[in-house]
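How it folds:
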Amino acid sequence: MDRIEQLKKALEKDPNNPLGLYGLALELYKQGLYEDAIIYFKKYLSLYEDQGAAYRTLAQCYINIGDIEQAIETYERGIEKARKYNHPTMVEEFKQEIERLKTMI
């Protein structure tokens, strides 16, 4: 049984497990299964919004499938949450990424 199958099986028992959701999303991302990863990153973030790394990797998934506008929206949501949870460095990082992405449109 590969890592993705193991994580999916664990999520069957506990579908809102944060480590399972994030782990599966990250594993799918690493294997280039970006559209599948998007599903799990979005579910993870709907339950655990104070996770900047998840916004960053979700945005990267969108970039990898060519959806720059959705990547920008993801970074914008990440900025909202970073402000809410007092992560000023992340706010600045995401702003820079948005500016970089705007040059790609």
Observations:
- The CA atoms of residues 26 and 57 lie 8 Å apart.
- Helices lie at 3-13, 18-30, 34-47, 52-64, 68-84, 88-102.
- Residues 3-102 form a domain with the Serine Threonine Protein Phosphatase 5, Tetratricopeptide repeat fold (CATH 1.25.40.10).
- The chain has a mean pLDDT of 97.
